[in-house]
Fold each of these.
Amino acid sequence: MEAQGKEINVQELNERIVSESAFIDLLHMELGKAIVGQRHMLDRLLICLLGDGHILLEGVPGLAKTLAIKSLSEAVDAHFSRIQFTPDLLPSDLIGTQIYNMQKGDFHVRKGPIFANFVLADEINRAPAKVQSALLEAMQEKQVTIGDETHALPKPFLVLATQNPVEQEGTYPLPEAQMDRFMLKTVLDYPKLEEERQIVRMQIQANQLKVKPVISLNQIEKARHIIHEIYMDEKIEQYILDLVFATRYPEQYKLGKLKALISFGGSPRASINLAKAARVNAFIHHRGYVIPEDVRAVAMDVLRHRVGLTYEAEAENMKSEDIITEVLNAVEVP
């Protein structure tokens, strides 16, 4: 009876999720006015937005990274700011500073560009460690301290950081502990030929379509609360833990050959974010329950920046993606 009762609840929940997630299709249609293809990137942006996480995008210039987050902010009627990270950037350029008012004889706070719903941190690896840590502290704590005052950041708060994999000159690589703060790391590829044809046509036409607000920030907050109710079976939880533990102790999962290639595996944040992202992926696909395919769909983006390689792996030209693929193939799917 208990199992039957649970089944009925899941069915009811599923119907509710189908109705509550209807805005996802509306959002995709609106974003399609400005962005051709890049469905993977848009879905990952939505996973971070609804899962209360942040995303690191890696790709060569011109792949619509800036356009994607700007269009998303327009579609949800949110405040957007773009920060170009440069070697001479200071933490105060990011979070703001105290300014002395001579007439009143006191200090007042001038808030920086971090006070927005959507923050694009362009080429994050170009700024020194102090600036990166100021941003990452804001991402983690959802607040910043200016002088002796603490200021809460607006809700929702999503950071989309980009880095260019080609140029290494004048860059400061993000340390592993800071990379771990990002819910997802998504690697972008060039568009397909037909998609690029559409992009060219769209850019040269006289009247370009503008993205209009189709949902509100309140709807985003409401969706975030509903996602916590999505049903996740214990077998799915075990599958998530097995995937993460296989990156730490590969020999326990008949992957002994990987032990010499992995310097460190996924942290507890990997397990948390894999569970969160899988739930949001189910929501995006209008389901009230998580299936193994939800976990597998997001596993690469959740784990690729959380698995460290040894010198031996680098000598063999192995990437973290190769190791995660082996893990996904080896760990038994429930």
Amino acid sequence: MKTRTKTIANDRNFAKEKVEKIKREAGKVIVGQEEMIESIIIAFLSDGHILLEGYPGLGKTITVKTVARVMNAKFKRVQFTPDLIPGDITGFEMWDPETRKSRIQKGPVFTNLLLADEINRAPAKVQSALLEAMQEKQVTIGRETYPLEELFLVLATQNPIEISGTYLLPEAEIDRFMFKLKVRYPTYSDEREITERQIRDVEAELDVVLDAKEVISLRHTISGWMPLEETSAIVKYMTRLVRATRPEEGNGELRNLVMYGASPRATIALAKAARVYAFIHGDDMVLPEHVQKMAYPVLRHRIILTHEAESQGMDSDSIIEKILQHVPILE
């Protein structure tokens, strides 16, 4: 037991040091956005996808590219447009006139990190093709199915203010994203530093901190950390939180504000995210504050508000805040 405890402590310190170094390296390029960077790292270690929502020009794309470089991950970007077809994402079967045989041209989904830029501009067929890749870690081209990389994440962006020429993401696809992150405007000091860096026009040299094998190894270590019997109380708390998002389970006030709540997939995502968050911060166990921190990115895209809530100017974050206040930690 002592040997195992010592090994876990070493792994936890290793993870904490690596995460801090990733943040420092990313900071050579990215000013601010620490929460977004840490959430991307947590998604890497949790095997989860991310939906980034924010106005243009806030550094979503450059942040994803920078983290991919620091983690030595294969990176591909697709600009989603209304004329995109599924084959542009997954690949297609083509005829080779020289060999007189068909061959497979694999698409950009065969990578470690796929940036789906403005995902809500793609039609339903493209979105469904991406859905298979996100959920099943495989794609079907012609009559054959091809596995994707073991380390495969989708980071999708969408602009919250543009409606013309966009397609609403179906709830089934939104539920596949582990996190929804809101990318906000920088502070005055951050924006000034961004401008000064751009004026200098000097490209930062980045060191590779982790590679794909180390990420997978850390995933296995974290997933084996703290057996279920040691965390039953915190698992019960997370389950109550997610169930409280559903109108039939919540209190009287929330029943009038929420149309649909989160699915059991949210409970799983919350458990994984909170465990990784605790691990990379060097804590010995998952605590309620870890769960509460991860509740916002995990739940905000899974709560569908009623017209009454929208008329009151409420958003899903305010609902989550009410749930965190209402649901007891121990019961």
Amino acid sequence: MPFVEAKCTNCGAVLPVDNTRDAWICNYCNTPFIVEKAINNYNVTNNITANTVNIFGGRESDFVIRGGVLEKYTGESTDVVIPDNVVRVGEKAFRGLPITSVKIPDSVKEISRYAFSDCTYLKSVIIPNSVTNISGAFRNCTSLTFVTIPSGITDISDAFQNCTSLTSVTIPNSVIDISGAFWGCTSLTYVTIPNSVTDIGGAFIDCKSLKSVTIPNSVKDISAFSGCTSLTSVTIPNSVERIFGHEFKNCYNLVDINWSHLSEYANFFPAIAKRKEEGLCIYCGGKLSLVKKCKSCGRKN
């Protein structure tokens, strides 16, 4: 089989192709292409070899890209526009760099772990609908104030840990895993969790400004809210049948709890345990009658 060097017409990866074939599929981005065009594409830049870096857009030294994977940004501009035809932003590609904004093209399918972690000056980011995974990508971006998570993303686990300036976020219905996603987001006050989410383990630990949250029926394990000192209201679905005591540790202001099993686990909620100790209604804090029926809300304790 007569293999020759060719350059993918989509991502620019250099790869061997059978020149007797009319079409081929890129090993890197899985895009089909015309073999003759890819060979001509290679011949135009015939100084390129399989191990050579391919550069797209901007100044030649700004982007290190191999086979559609952006491995490193070396430019000086703090407002970054990632070149078209990048398929994946590689692990630690921008880690710790003083960038303030980034625009990601529709060609990108994945943003790898730590790709933008420790970018403490990053204030805004536009994530295209083509991306399906941003797990761990924006950890410790302490200046990030707002982010739009597009529909289509399924995994945002650990994505925004310690993004201390993030105040609100809307999670699309496509997301399944948010475990650890907002751990340490101390300015986060509002969040909506869709019914698609099944895993929230550790998602909101130490979110000290979070005031209320509704957990969907799709969730069974709620070990996610320890240290949420401003949390006052929570709705827990019937799918959660028991807790173990650590889920709401140090949530001293949590007094409004809508959960069918509250009476069984009242002692695991600091404010509710205090009500119970003082002989008050665990549901509303009202006074109880002799038969332990609340004089205010009418519920039996």
Amino acid sequence: MFTGIIETLGTIAAMEPRGGDLRLKVRAPGMDLADTRLGDSIAVNGVCLTVTALDNDQFSADVSRESLGVTTLGDLGIGDRLNLERALTLSTRLGGHLVSGHVDGVGELLSMRPDARSTRVHFRAPDALARYIAAKGSITIDGASLTVNGVDGAVFDVNIIPHTWDLTRFSVYKVGTRVNLEVDLVARYLERLMLGDRAAHSGAGSRVSESWLAEQGFPNHSGTRD
């Protein structure tokens, strides 16, 4: 588990293809790796990776074909910046929110504009994730815990303060940049819990839908009950 509070910026030192997946070597001079052991977890742009080798201020991790397919790690190249965070401990301050490091989908940056001393950034999430994103809720973008300002369909915006802008990879973003998204895990579990026994069934019957909500007595869009 992680908090979404980025510890430091790292860079990609090497990318070695290995039988269809990838061995990633990360240079992390701002991270204290003295107590890091092989097998420990480090979030790299929001992707939980397992440390497979250590060398002074560098660590290596294997990126599976699955991770390459559902994250942006395969888009990166040598020298690209990375948001890094070591897994939390029981004594860690939970300054962000609970983050699993399991990316739910890839979003796209739509626009950026100054907002006083901060930067207002709009992203488009995959349609399947839109129902988990709520105004004033939490979302993880490339491993960084952020508060959602507003939502319009699958488009949402966040406000990035100067401190976060300077100490994360947000400073290299531009329109069209693809980012790793992880929605609030509480929302995901809440959806499954609401389904009750229906969660064991596959297909449409295993999802919360408008018709299912109506069956449970929730009001429809007009504010009346069916």
